């Protein structure tokens, strides 16, 4: 049977440049909670403080009440600790090895693409394992500075050099995207891709759905892997309604069939 998987594998085999756009659904296969922005741990949307999680995890709250923001950053950090990348991340990195002009644009802050070996990577919402001081040039990692969220420390964490506030290198609610990420998105938008694949993201952010829409308009094959319907589902050429890791593994096997 000429399945969707076979069709997508055929397109990938011929392609030189593939753009993968990934979101929480990919890391959900690693046991991570699916995030809405970075606040997906909280389905009821309200925190102990009675405020929406978007407010607790906002750039503004970090300035006014860093202890509140850090309380939730800590919960997210410890939910992620001990988890690692899965077969889906691995397959994407393998495809990049095979086709060096492959790119990954991810909303995920878990760093799993990097760990799996992806190099052409845009972490548009940052990386939670990178920490920096908001006052001086001190930088560290959550592994070194917070023992990987393993041992409780006093929050908010303070800089050992200047006592300034330490924060993770992630885009909090209400904050602008980093200049570097915006530049990179602009750059990949100028590359003529041979296939664009959206994996495990609902595509609510314009910078996530944009490349899919542009590909569609340019006649470039578009694929979505998602067990749920999203705003992109009706737009793509191939909609694979299944989990990310399993599907990417099947595509990889099909690509490498003799
Ligand atoms: Zn400092």
Task: Please explain how this structure is put together.
This protein is of the alpha/beta class. It folds into two domains: 151 residues, Rossmann fold; 71 residues, SIR2/SIRT2 'Small Domain', CATH 3.30.1600.10. 38% of the residues lie in helices and 16% in strands. It has eleven helices and nine strands. A six-stranded parallel beta sheet has the order 3-2-1-7-8-9, with helices on both faces. The chain has a three-stranded antiparallel beta sheet with strand order 5-4-6. Strand 7, helix 10 and strand 8 form a beta-alpha-beta unit. The radius of gyration is 19 Å and the shape is elongated. The mean pLDDT is 90. The structure holds zinc ion (ZN). The site of zinc ion has 8 residues, from loops. The site of zinc ion (ZN) has 8 residues, from loops.
Q: What's the arrangement of secondary structure elements?
A:
Elements: H1 4-14, E1 18-22, H2 24-28, H3 53-56, H4 59-64, H5 66-80, H6 87-98, E2 103-106, H7 112-116, E3 121-123, E4 126-133, E5 139-141, H8 142-145, E6 166-170, H9 179-190, E7 195-199, H10 206-218, E8 222-225, E9 238-240, H11 244-255
Parallel strand pairs: 1-2, 1-7, 2-3, 7-8, 8-9
Antiparallel strand pairs: 4-5, 4-6
Helix pairs in contact: 1-11, 6-11
The structure holds zinc ion.
